[in-house]
Amino acid sequence: MTIRYLKQAEAAAGVAAEHERVTQAVQDMIEDIRARGEVAVREYAEKFDGWTGDFVLGEEKRRRLIDSVPQHVKDDIDFAHRQIKRFADAQRDSLTSFEIETEPGVLLGQRILPVGCAGCYVPGGRYAHAASALMSVATAKAAGVKHVVACSPPRGDSINPVVAYAMDVAGADMILEMGGVHAMASMAFGLFGGREADILVGPGNAYVAEAKRLLFGEVGIDVFAGPTESAIIADGSADPMTIAVDLVSQAEHGPNSPVWLFSTSEALAREVMEVLPKVADDMPNADVVHTAWRDYGEVIVGDSREEIVEVSDRYACEHLQVLCEDLGWWKEHLSNYGSLFLGEGSTVTHGDKCSGTNHILPTKRAGRYSGGLNVHKFMKVLTTQQLSQEANRTFSAVGSRISRTEGMEGHARACDWRLAKYFPEQDWDFPVHRQSRY
Predict the structure, then answer these.
(1) Which Gene Ontology BP terms does the record give (predicted)?
(2) Per the annotation, does 177 bind a ligand?
(3) 250 is in an annotated binding site
(4) CA-to-CA distance for 163 and 175, rounded, in angstroms?
(5) Taking CA 344 as the corner, what is the angle to CA 342 and CA 348, rounded to the nearest 5 degrees?
């Protein structure tokens, strides 16, 4: 490859040590909550959020928060909800139950069932992530999940009213005014009158992400999530200003949010590098954007489209925009990403807020093996089988022989029992154990 780095990340050292510190802190909290339950949660809520009130959002307070949301804001939330639900419904319908007869007397099938309870985390630190409430809760409900618990950290005497409205519109059955590790543990363990969550979903800070990782196995999770990542692939036909604006828009997620540019045009890449700091200067949170760009921003130039595809697939970026000619070619050849945005008319903000695809997506190269949150994450593919007596003539014979080849005598005898029971007069050309009745 002839790729060239015009800018490389300058992230500070010590990332591994910080991750170890976060892991230990989160692990200690989870085990404390496991041991002391709601008492421990109340202590953490007061320590981290200054919260001493009820955690479960009651109907009266829910209505009061919803009533405080301006109608034009509700209209926008409603619009986004319709798009997300429409796409999630189509995802659900793409996965179906079926039953087939593979051989005479052998019926195999699959059943598609939703999990019983989903826990949806909605961040509430730097921003009020109303769209995240829609992405998680509405998708779970489209999957048919009967009980959805949603939580978000309070600010002042309540969670954000717009977040509360989004949770309500999306169909949350229970809302917790709670955030952080203790919220994840509360949903996983079914505290405060809730049900034990079968799956935990939603973005969050490093502590929330680590809580999901440590609870995985005990419960399901959507994705292993890190800081938001965004990349743009651009050729010489792209507008440098559009690229700069879009990269800045994603860098505002946080000072550790990577933004990357992959281009076949060095002239374009250098122009973006010149323009981007000026665009960042105009932002109200310019310090956040500048830090993200300085510490995590990268600009890579390659001589061919194929080289850029290889670079992009290696990074497996969470959000990937393509600002190039021949968008169909790029769509066909790119393989690793969380969500793909084709053409100048498609900015990441659309997917983050209202286009309909989900914005809870894989980071840290997980796009190599996983997609983002979708209806199927909330559903189980359960297989069924039913064999007739006659089918056992073949299948129990094969099952018996394979089991003994593997050294698993008990497995073999389960098949042997059926061979002897169903076909008592038949002589077999392999050993069949004839189990006596007791």
Answers:
(1) L-histidine biosynthetic process
(2) no
(3) yes
(4) 10
(5) 65
Task: Report pLDDT digits (tens) over 192-220.
Answer: 998 999 999 999 999 999 999 999 999 99
Residues contacting 216, CB < 8 A, separation 6+: none
Asked whether residue 411 is marked as a ligand-binding residue, the answer is yes
User: Same CATH topology for 4-11+227-371 and 37-222?
Assistant: yes
For residue 319, indicate whether it is catalytic: yes
- Yes or no: say if 99 and 173 are a contact pair by the CB < 8 Å rule: no
Task: Give pLDDT tens digits for 283-331.
Answer: 999 999 999 999 999 999 999 999 999 999 999 999 999 999 999 999 9
- Could you tell me which residues come within 8 angstroms of residue 345 by beta carbon, excluding any fewer than 6 positions away? none
Instruction: Please give the structure tokens belonging to residue 118.
Output: 């989903």
Residue among 76, 81, 54 nearest 171 (CA): 81
Q: Choosing from 182, 319, 344, 409, which is the catalytic residue?
A: 319
d(CA 76, CA 134): 12
Question: Catalytic: which of 318, 332, 350, 359?
Answer: 318
Is 318 an active-site residue? yes
CATH among 3.20.20.150, 2.30.30.240, 2.60.130.10, 3.40.50.1980 for 37-222: 3.40.50.1980
| Domain range list for the chain | 4-11+227-371, 37-222, 390-438
The reply, when asked if residue 406 is annotated as ligand binding, is yes
CATH topology of domain 4-11+227-371: Rossmann fold (3.40.50)
